[in-house]
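Reminder to self: tokens first, then the designed residues, so the page reads top to bottom the way the pipeline ran.
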């Protein structure tokens, strides 16, 4: 089993090195530096500006599905028999792995949150306090952060449709839609308003609370981010991102021509980086070859067919890479 883990990491590192330059080019004014945290989590930096997207590094060993759908759904990752960490239940209080976070996050100016499930939001209260970052998210996201004591002047409540200019970047907030989990049976209309929830939260209390996408305009490139394997096509019409963080987990196969429609409506981006494809219930360094074989490789084949001029970059956990 250990040998399999090592071989998997060597494979991912090899593919990663084929398509990227290492972060030694970090001072290039016309480049963005990316680091993948797993799930839908990212660090994106340009010069002195660092933006985190759905930073979830704790990677809890959750012994059951985190939302109320079939635990047998292929949309959900599984635990590992060689992971000897504590096993959590949905009713347990969420606990951030502060050791892992402190080791891998040094700076954040802004945090953008797609929706409020635990694998997108639950580490944000700790990271926001640690870094002093400002956070953009839905009313549910902001209500949860206020419950954890994040100050009002650090929080921006959005619903989709806003287009904000900040010092070194701008961001268009795009109404989104969650993945069609549970063989298309997942649906949640629940939201939180300020005062509805008290910290600390149980894992199950991190509800979706509506979903977003973000178009981040840096000096060098425009990046379109996804936090699920779904999108509202009309909301993306006319966008021409240079870089697409494309959700490629298994639930995309529940959608009509997901890959083709996504690539077409985003005008066949120059760079495509798969996101939300890994098994985020196992620690960093564990085998991710199943995700590569069943999610990423079929997606790459589809990109070759539909958007042959696009370049796909396969990220490796916690390894910074530069996109010019």
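Designed residues (324 positions):
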């Amino acid at each position: 089993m250990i040998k399999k883990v090592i071989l998997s990491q060597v494979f991912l590192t090899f593919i990663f090195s084929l398509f990227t330059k290492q972060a030694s080019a970090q001072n290039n004014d016309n480049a963005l530096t990316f680091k993948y945290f797993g799930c839908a989590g990212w660090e994106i930096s340009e010069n002195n500006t660092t933006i985190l997207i759905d930073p979830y590094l704790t990677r809890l060993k959750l012994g059951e599905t985190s939302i109320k759908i079939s635990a047998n759904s292929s949309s959900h990752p599984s635990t590992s028999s060689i992971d000897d960490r504590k096993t959590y239940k949905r009713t347990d209080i969420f606990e951030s792995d502060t050791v892992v976070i402190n080791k891998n996050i040094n700076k954040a100016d802004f945090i953008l949150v797609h929706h409020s499930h635990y694998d997108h939001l639950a580490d944000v209260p700790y990271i926001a306090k640690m870094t002093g970052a400002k956070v953009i998210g839905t009313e549910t996201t902001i209500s949860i952060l206020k419950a954890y004591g994040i100050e009002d002047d650090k929080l921006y409540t959005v619903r989709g449709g806003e287009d904000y200019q900040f010092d070194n970047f701008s961001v268009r907030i795009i109404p989104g839609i969650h993945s069609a989990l549970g063989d298309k049976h997942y649906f949640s209309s629940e939201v939180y308003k300020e005062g509805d929830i008290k910290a600390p939260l149980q894992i199950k209390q991190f509800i979706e609370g509506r979903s977003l996408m973000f178009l981040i305009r840096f000096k060098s490139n425009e990046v379109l981010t996804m936090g699920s394997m779904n999108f509202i096509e009309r909301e993306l019409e006319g966008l021409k991102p240079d870089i697409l963080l494309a959700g490629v987990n298994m639930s995309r196969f529940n959608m009509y021509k997901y890959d083709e429609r996504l690539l077409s409506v985003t005008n066949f981006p120059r760079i495509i980086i798969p996101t939300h494809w890994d098994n985020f219930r196992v620690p960093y360094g564990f085998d991710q070859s199943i995700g590569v074989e069943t999610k990423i490789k079929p997606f790459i084949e589809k990109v070759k067919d539909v958007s042959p001029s696009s370049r796909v970059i396969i990220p490796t956990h916690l390894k910074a890479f530069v996109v010019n």
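Residues 2-19 form the longest helix (18 residues).
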